Amino acid sequence: MSQSRVRHSDIEVGKALPWDVYDEKGTLLLRKGYLINNEGQVDRLVAVGVFADSNALRQSRIAQVEAEDSEPEASPAQEWLDLRKKMELLYENVELTIQSGQFISRITEIARCVDNLCGAKPELAQAIISLRQDGRYSSRHLLDSATIARLAARDLKLTPAREFGLICAALTMNLGTTCFQDEIKAQSTPLTDEQKERLHKHPEEATTRLKSMGVNDPIWLRAVLEHHEHFDGTGYPNGTAGHELSPEGQILRLADIYCARITFREYRSAVPLTVALRGILLERGKTVDQTLAAQFIRAVGIFPPGLQLRLANGEKGVVVRPGSSPNHPLVVSLIGNDGLPLSPPLQRDTQNPLYGVGETIDPATFNAYVDIDSIWG
Ligand SMILES: [Fe+2]
Questions:
Q1: What are the 10-residue block averages of pLDDT along the chain, 377 residues in total?
Q2: Cβ-based neighbour number of residue 190 at 10 Å
Q3: Do you know which SUPFAM superfamilies this protein is assigned to (predicted)?
Q4: In a 10 Å sphere around its CB, with 0-12 CB exposed, 13-18 middle and 19+ buried, how is residue 49 labelled?
Protein backbone atom coordinates (compact mmCIF):
# COMPACT_ATOMS: atom_id res chain seq x y z
CA MET A 1 0.00 0.00 0.00
CA SER A 2 1.52 3.32 -1.01
CA GLN A 3 1.18 6.08 1.55
CA SER A 4 1.32 9.88 1.39
CA ARG A 5 1.85 12.49 4.05
CA VAL A 6 -1.32 14.00 5.52
CA ARG A 7 -1.57 17.80 5.24
CA HIS A 8 -3.29 20.20 7.58
CA SER A 9 -6.10 20.86 5.09
CA ASP A 10 -6.81 17.10 4.78
CA ILE A 11 -8.22 16.93 8.30
CA GLU A 12 -11.51 18.63 9.13
CA VAL A 13 -12.17 19.44 12.78
CA GLY A 14 -15.47 17.93 13.99
CA LYS A 15 -15.57 15.33 11.20
CA ALA A 16 -14.66 11.66 11.27
CA LEU A 17 -11.31 10.74 9.69
CA PRO A 18 -11.99 9.34 6.19
CA TRP A 19 -8.92 7.02 6.30
CA ASP A 20 -6.64 5.21 8.76
CA VAL A 21 -3.70 7.28 9.98
CA TYR A 22 -0.17 5.81 10.34
CA ASP A 23 3.17 7.03 11.62
CA GLU A 24 6.22 7.06 9.33
CA LYS A 25 7.08 3.47 10.27
CA GLY A 26 3.61 2.29 9.20
CA THR A 27 2.22 1.79 12.70
CA LEU A 28 -1.53 2.43 12.86
CA LEU A 29 -2.20 5.50 15.02
CA LEU A 30 -5.86 6.36 14.41
CA ARG A 31 -8.61 4.35 12.77
CA LYS A 32 -10.89 5.63 10.00
CA GLY A 33 -13.95 7.20 11.70
CA TYR A 34 -11.98 8.70 14.59
CA LEU A 35 -13.31 12.17 15.44
CA ILE A 36 -10.84 15.06 15.58
CA ASN A 37 -12.17 17.59 18.06
CA ASN A 38 -9.96 20.64 17.78
CA GLU A 39 -7.31 22.47 15.71
CA GLY A 40 -4.65 21.65 18.32
CA GLN A 41 -5.02 17.93 17.57
CA VAL A 42 -4.62 18.61 13.85
CA ASP A 43 -1.53 20.78 14.48
CA ARG A 44 0.10 18.04 16.58
CA LEU A 45 -0.57 15.30 14.02
CA VAL A 46 0.76 17.36 11.14
CA ALA A 47 3.81 18.46 13.16
CA VAL A 48 4.68 14.84 14.04
CA GLY A 49 4.18 13.79 10.40
CA VAL A 50 1.43 11.25 9.76
CA PHE A 51 0.50 9.22 6.68
CA ALA A 52 -2.54 7.66 5.00
CA ASP A 53 -3.23 5.47 2.00
CA SER A 54 -2.38 7.53 -1.12
CA ASN A 55 -5.52 6.57 -3.06
CA ALA A 56 -7.85 7.25 -0.15
CA LEU A 57 -6.14 10.57 0.45
CA ARG A 58 -6.43 11.54 -3.22
CA GLN A 59 -10.18 10.71 -3.22
CA SER A 60 -10.86 12.77 -0.11
CA ARG A 61 -8.93 15.73 -1.57
CA ILE A 62 -10.96 15.64 -4.78
CA ALA A 63 -14.18 15.39 -2.72
CA GLN A 64 -13.04 18.34 -0.59
CA VAL A 65 -12.40 20.55 -3.64
CA GLU A 66 -15.80 19.60 -5.14
CA ALA A 67 -17.63 20.15 -1.83
CA GLU A 68 -16.47 23.77 -1.89
CA ASP A 69 -18.92 24.33 -4.76
CA SER A 70 -22.00 23.44 -2.71
CA GLU A 71 -21.49 25.60 0.38
CA PRO A 72 -24.53 27.51 1.77
CA GLU A 73 -24.81 31.28 1.24
CA ALA A 74 -22.19 33.21 3.19
CA SER A 75 -21.67 36.83 4.30
CA PRO A 76 -19.58 39.04 1.94
CA ALA A 77 -16.45 38.70 4.12
CA GLN A 78 -17.00 34.96 4.40
CA GLU A 79 -17.31 34.73 0.62
CA TRP A 80 -13.77 36.12 0.34
CA LEU A 81 -12.47 33.78 3.04
CA ASP A 82 -14.14 30.85 1.26
CA LEU A 83 -12.49 31.93 -1.98
CA ARG A 84 -9.13 31.99 -0.17
CA LYS A 85 -9.76 28.47 1.06
CA LYS A 86 -10.65 27.41 -2.47
CA MET A 87 -7.36 28.87 -3.77
CA GLU A 88 -5.43 27.21 -0.96
CA LEU A 89 -6.94 23.81 -1.71
CA LEU A 90 -6.37 24.28 -5.43
CA TYR A 91 -2.69 25.08 -4.94
CA GLU A 92 -2.13 22.40 -2.31
CA ASN A 93 -3.40 19.91 -4.88
CA VAL A 94 -2.05 21.72 -7.91
CA GLU A 95 -0.35 18.79 -9.66
CA LEU A 96 -3.34 16.55 -9.06
CA THR A 97 -5.73 19.16 -10.49
CA ILE A 98 -3.47 19.75 -13.51
CA GLN A 99 -3.30 16.01 -14.17
CA SER A 100 -7.09 15.74 -14.00
CA GLY A 101 -7.37 18.55 -16.60
CA GLN A 102 -9.35 20.81 -14.25
CA PHE A 103 -6.81 23.46 -13.29
CA ILE A 104 -7.68 26.09 -15.90
CA SER A 105 -11.44 25.74 -15.41
CA ARG A 106 -10.95 26.11 -11.63
CA ILE A 107 -8.84 29.25 -12.14
CA THR A 108 -11.34 30.89 -14.49
CA GLU A 109 -14.13 30.06 -12.05
CA ILE A 110 -12.20 31.76 -9.21
CA ALA A 111 -11.40 34.70 -11.54
CA ARG A 112 -15.14 35.18 -12.18
CA CYS A 113 -15.76 35.22 -8.41
CA VAL A 114 -12.99 37.82 -7.91
CA ASP A 115 -14.54 39.97 -10.64
CA ASN A 116 -18.04 39.67 -9.14
CA LEU A 117 -16.99 40.28 -5.52
CA CYS A 118 -14.83 43.30 -6.49
CA GLY A 119 -17.72 44.68 -8.55
CA ALA A 120 -20.24 44.22 -5.72
CA LYS A 121 -18.19 45.60 -2.79
CA PRO A 122 -14.87 47.11 -3.89
CA GLU A 123 -14.05 48.66 -0.49
CA LEU A 124 -14.64 45.38 1.35
CA ALA A 125 -12.46 43.60 -1.22
CA GLN A 126 -9.62 46.00 -0.44
CA ALA A 127 -10.12 46.07 3.33
CA ILE A 128 -10.06 42.31 3.83
CA ILE A 129 -6.57 42.07 2.29
CA SER A 130 -4.97 44.02 5.12
CA LEU A 131 -7.38 43.12 7.93
CA ARG A 132 -7.46 39.31 7.57
CA GLN A 133 -3.97 38.00 6.94
CA ASP A 134 -4.44 34.33 7.69
CA GLY A 135 -4.11 31.11 5.74
CA ARG A 136 -1.31 30.03 3.46
CA TYR A 137 0.67 33.00 2.13
CA SER A 138 1.43 31.95 -1.45
CA SER A 139 -2.15 31.26 -2.57
CA ARG A 140 -3.59 34.17 -0.56
CA HIS A 141 -1.07 36.51 -2.15
CA LEU A 142 -2.23 35.48 -5.64
CA LEU A 143 -5.83 36.21 -4.71
CA ASP A 144 -4.90 39.56 -3.08
CA SER A 145 -2.91 40.58 -6.16
CA ALA A 146 -5.81 39.57 -8.43
CA THR A 147 -8.14 41.75 -6.33
CA ILE A 148 -5.91 44.84 -6.43
CA ALA A 149 -5.13 44.33 -10.14
CA ARG A 150 -8.87 44.05 -10.90
CA LEU A 151 -9.68 47.24 -8.95
CA ALA A 152 -6.85 49.14 -10.69
CA ALA A 153 -7.84 47.78 -14.11
CA ARG A 154 -11.42 49.02 -13.64
CA ASP A 155 -10.13 52.47 -12.76
CA LEU A 156 -7.84 52.42 -15.80
CA LYS A 157 -10.83 51.45 -17.96
CA LEU A 158 -9.36 48.28 -19.43
CA THR A 159 -11.84 46.30 -21.54
CA PRO A 160 -13.61 43.42 -19.73
CA ALA A 161 -11.60 40.85 -21.73
CA ARG A 162 -8.27 42.46 -20.77
CA GLU A 163 -9.42 42.77 -17.19
CA PHE A 164 -10.31 39.07 -17.06
CA GLY A 165 -6.97 38.06 -18.61
CA LEU A 166 -5.23 40.15 -15.96
CA ILE A 167 -7.15 38.51 -13.08
CA CYS A 168 -6.32 35.04 -14.44
CA ALA A 169 -2.66 36.09 -14.78
CA ALA A 170 -2.55 37.22 -11.13
CA LEU A 171 -4.01 33.90 -9.99
CA THR A 172 -1.37 31.92 -11.90
CA MET A 173 1.72 34.18 -11.99
CA ASN A 174 3.77 31.91 -9.71
CA LEU A 175 2.48 28.57 -10.99
CA GLY A 176 5.02 25.86 -10.28
CA THR A 177 6.77 27.79 -7.52
CA THR A 178 4.12 28.41 -4.85
CA CYS A 179 5.82 26.14 -2.27
CA PHE A 180 9.09 27.89 -3.05
CA GLN A 181 7.38 31.28 -2.55
CA ASP A 182 6.23 30.13 0.93
CA GLU A 183 9.78 29.03 1.72
CA ILE A 184 11.42 32.34 0.77
CA LYS A 185 8.63 34.33 2.42
CA ALA A 186 9.56 32.74 5.77
CA GLN A 187 13.30 33.17 5.20
CA SER A 188 15.07 36.04 6.99
CA THR A 189 18.48 35.47 5.36
CA PRO A 190 19.43 36.67 1.84
CA LEU A 191 18.51 34.38 -1.06
CA THR A 192 21.15 31.87 -2.14
CA ASP A 193 22.39 31.89 -5.78
CA GLU A 194 20.34 28.77 -6.44
CA GLN A 195 17.19 30.41 -5.04
CA LYS A 196 17.82 33.55 -7.11
CA GLU A 197 18.13 31.48 -10.27
CA ARG A 198 14.88 29.67 -9.53
CA LEU A 199 13.15 32.97 -8.81
CA HIS A 200 14.37 34.48 -12.07
CA LYS A 201 13.04 31.56 -14.08
CA HIS A 202 9.57 31.38 -12.52
CA PRO A 203 7.70 33.75 -14.89
CA GLU A 204 8.84 31.65 -17.88
CA GLU A 205 8.11 28.41 -16.05
CA ALA A 206 4.56 29.54 -15.26
CA THR A 207 3.98 30.73 -18.85
CA THR A 208 5.20 27.43 -20.29
CA ARG A 209 2.96 25.42 -17.99
CA LEU A 210 -0.08 27.55 -18.81
CA LYS A 211 0.52 27.12 -22.56
CA SER A 212 0.85 23.36 -22.09
CA MET A 213 -2.64 23.40 -20.51
CA GLY A 214 -4.10 25.16 -23.55
CA VAL A 215 -4.07 28.80 -22.39
CA ASN A 216 -3.67 31.01 -25.47
CA ASP A 217 -4.97 34.38 -24.23
CA PRO A 218 -2.07 36.76 -25.05
CA ILE A 219 -3.06 39.19 -22.24
CA TRP A 220 -2.93 36.42 -19.63
CA LEU A 221 0.33 34.88 -20.88
CA ARG A 222 2.14 38.19 -21.36
CA ALA A 223 1.16 39.53 -17.93
CA VAL A 224 2.51 36.36 -16.27
CA LEU A 225 5.74 36.51 -18.28
CA GLU A 226 6.27 40.23 -17.55
CA HIS A 227 5.18 40.49 -13.92
CA HIS A 228 8.79 40.95 -12.72
CA GLU A 229 10.00 43.12 -15.61
CA HIS A 230 10.96 46.72 -14.78
CA PHE A 231 10.21 49.83 -16.82
CA ASP A 232 13.96 50.67 -16.91
CA GLY A 233 14.88 47.17 -18.15
CA THR A 234 16.44 45.97 -14.87
CA GLY A 235 13.83 43.27 -14.25
CA TYR A 236 13.62 39.61 -15.23
CA PRO A 237 13.42 37.21 -17.06
CA ASN A 238 14.13 39.12 -20.31
CA GLY A 239 15.02 42.67 -19.22
CA THR A 240 12.23 44.03 -21.43
CA ALA A 241 11.86 47.80 -20.96
CA GLY A 242 9.63 50.83 -21.47
CA HIS A 243 6.66 50.68 -23.76
CA GLU A 244 7.66 47.21 -24.98
CA LEU A 245 5.94 46.06 -21.78
CA SER A 246 2.22 45.40 -21.67
CA PRO A 247 0.13 47.59 -19.32
CA GLU A 248 -1.35 44.41 -17.80
CA GLY A 249 2.13 43.08 -16.93
CA GLN A 250 2.99 46.36 -15.23
CA ILE A 251 -0.33 46.58 -13.34
CA LEU A 252 0.28 43.04 -12.14
CA ARG A 253 3.79 43.96 -11.02
CA LEU A 254 2.43 46.90 -9.02
CA ALA A 255 -0.32 44.77 -7.45
CA ASP A 256 2.24 42.06 -6.64
CA ILE A 257 4.68 44.39 -4.86
CA TYR A 258 1.96 46.37 -3.09
CA CYS A 259 0.31 43.21 -1.68
CA ALA A 260 3.67 41.69 -0.70
CA ARG A 261 4.62 44.82 1.27
CA ILE A 262 1.38 45.08 3.22
CA THR A 263 1.63 41.45 4.30
CA PHE A 264 3.00 40.33 7.63
CA ARG A 265 6.13 38.16 7.34
CA GLU A 266 7.82 35.94 9.90
CA TYR A 267 10.78 38.32 10.10
CA ARG A 268 9.02 41.68 9.81
CA SER A 269 5.63 43.33 10.34
CA ALA A 270 3.40 44.29 7.47
CA VAL A 271 3.99 47.91 6.50
CA PRO A 272 1.02 50.30 6.66
CA LEU A 273 -0.81 50.66 3.34
CA THR A 274 0.33 54.26 2.96
CA VAL A 275 3.99 53.28 3.39
CA ALA A 276 3.61 50.63 0.67
CA LEU A 277 2.09 53.24 -1.64
CA ARG A 278 4.94 55.66 -0.89
CA GLY A 279 7.36 52.91 -1.94
CA ILE A 280 5.62 52.70 -5.30
CA LEU A 281 5.69 56.49 -5.61
CA LEU A 282 9.48 56.44 -5.19
CA GLU A 283 9.81 53.92 -8.02
CA ARG A 284 7.98 56.16 -10.51
CA GLY A 285 9.92 56.72 -13.70
CA LYS A 286 12.50 54.10 -12.65
CA THR A 287 11.25 50.55 -12.32
CA VAL A 288 7.65 51.51 -13.01
CA ASP A 289 6.12 53.76 -15.64
CA GLN A 290 5.43 57.20 -14.16
CA THR A 291 1.88 57.58 -15.48
CA LEU A 292 0.84 54.02 -14.66
CA ALA A 293 2.20 54.27 -11.10
CA ALA A 294 0.25 57.50 -10.51
CA GLN A 295 -2.92 55.90 -11.90
CA PHE A 296 -2.40 52.82 -9.74
CA ILE A 297 -2.04 54.91 -6.57
CA ARG A 298 -5.16 56.87 -7.46
CA ALA A 299 -7.08 53.61 -7.99
CA VAL A 300 -5.95 52.09 -4.67
CA GLY A 301 -6.50 55.43 -2.90
CA ILE A 302 -4.14 57.56 -0.82
CA PHE A 303 -6.10 56.33 2.20
CA PRO A 304 -7.14 52.79 1.17
CA PRO A 305 -10.14 51.11 2.86
CA GLY A 306 -8.87 49.08 5.82
CA LEU A 307 -6.02 51.50 6.63
CA GLN A 308 -5.61 51.77 10.41
CA LEU A 309 -5.01 55.27 11.70
CA ARG A 310 -5.27 57.65 14.62
CA LEU A 311 -7.49 60.73 14.43
CA ALA A 312 -6.73 64.23 15.67
CA ASN A 313 -8.87 63.62 18.78
CA GLY A 314 -6.86 60.51 19.71
CA GLU A 315 -9.37 57.88 18.56
CA LYS A 316 -8.13 54.89 16.56
CA GLY A 317 -10.06 53.51 13.62
CA VAL A 318 -10.05 52.23 10.06
CA VAL A 319 -10.70 53.96 6.74
CA VAL A 320 -14.11 52.96 5.38
CA ARG A 321 -14.05 54.68 1.98
CA PRO A 322 -12.98 57.91 0.27
CA GLY A 323 -14.76 60.98 1.61
CA SER A 324 -15.50 64.36 0.06
CA SER A 325 -11.89 64.65 -1.14
CA PRO A 326 -8.93 62.22 -1.51
CA ASN A 327 -7.34 63.67 1.65
CA HIS A 328 -10.43 63.29 3.81
CA PRO A 329 -11.55 59.66 4.03
CA LEU A 330 -14.54 58.46 6.02
CA VAL A 331 -13.33 56.56 9.08
CA VAL A 332 -14.96 54.34 11.65
CA SER A 333 -13.47 54.84 15.13
CA LEU A 334 -13.10 51.63 17.13
CA ILE A 335 -10.99 52.74 20.11
CA GLY A 336 -11.70 55.91 22.08
CA ASN A 337 -9.05 58.44 23.15
CA ASP A 338 -9.07 56.73 26.57
CA GLY A 339 -7.81 53.52 24.91
CA LEU A 340 -11.08 51.66 25.49
CA PRO A 341 -13.17 50.05 22.72
CA LEU A 342 -16.03 52.20 21.43
CA SER A 343 -19.35 50.42 21.50
CA PRO A 344 -20.88 50.95 19.04
CA PRO A 345 -18.04 52.12 16.75
CA LEU A 346 -18.48 55.71 15.52
CA GLN A 347 -18.44 57.03 11.95
CA ARG A 348 -16.10 60.02 11.61
CA ASP A 349 -15.79 62.41 8.68
CA THR A 350 -12.15 63.48 8.62
CA GLN A 351 -13.17 66.70 6.84
CA ASN A 352 -14.11 67.88 10.34
CA PRO A 353 -10.83 69.15 11.91
CA LEU A 354 -11.78 67.54 15.24
CA TYR A 355 -11.53 64.14 13.55
CA GLY A 356 -8.74 65.03 11.13
CA VAL A 357 -6.36 62.30 9.94
CA GLY A 358 -3.44 61.78 12.32
CA GLU A 359 -0.68 59.23 11.85
CA THR A 360 -1.13 55.73 10.42
CA ILE A 361 -0.76 52.89 12.90
CA ASP A 362 1.53 49.87 12.63
CA PRO A 363 -0.94 46.99 11.89
CA ALA A 364 0.84 44.83 14.50
CA THR A 365 -0.08 47.29 17.26
CA PHE A 366 -3.70 47.84 16.26
CA ASN A 367 -5.39 45.57 18.75
CA ALA A 368 -9.08 46.08 17.98
CA TYR A 369 -11.21 43.52 16.19
CA VAL A 370 -12.64 44.93 12.98
CA ASP A 371 -16.02 43.45 12.07
CA ILE A 372 -15.70 43.62 8.29
CA ASP A 373 -19.31 42.70 7.50
CA SER A 374 -20.79 45.31 9.79
CA ILE A 375 -18.63 48.06 8.25
CA TRP A 376 -18.52 47.11 4.55
CA GLY A 377 -21.06 44.27 4.17
FE1 LIG B 1 6.28 36.18 -9.22
A1: 86 83 91 78 83 89 75 84 94 92 96 96 95 87 97 94 98 89 80 89 95 98 97 95 95 93 63 74 83 91 91 95 89 93 93 92 81 93
A2: 7
A3: HD-domain/PDEase-like
A4: exposed
- Domains observed in the chain: 3-70 (3.90.105), 76-300 (1.10.3210.10), 308-376 (no CATH)
Cα 68 to ligand 1 centroid, rounded to whole Å: 27
- DSSP helix/strand/coil, 188: coil
Closest CA to 183 of 192, 313, 371: 192
Ligand 1 center to 257 CA (angstroms): 9
Q: What's the gap in Å between 183 CA and the centre of ligand 1?
A: 14
Environment of ion ligand 1 (residues, CB < 5 A): 174
How many angstroms does the Cα of residue 78 sit away from the middle of ligand 1? 27
Write down the pTM of the prediction.
0.79
Q: How far is the CA of 239 from the centre of ligand 1 (A)?
A: 15
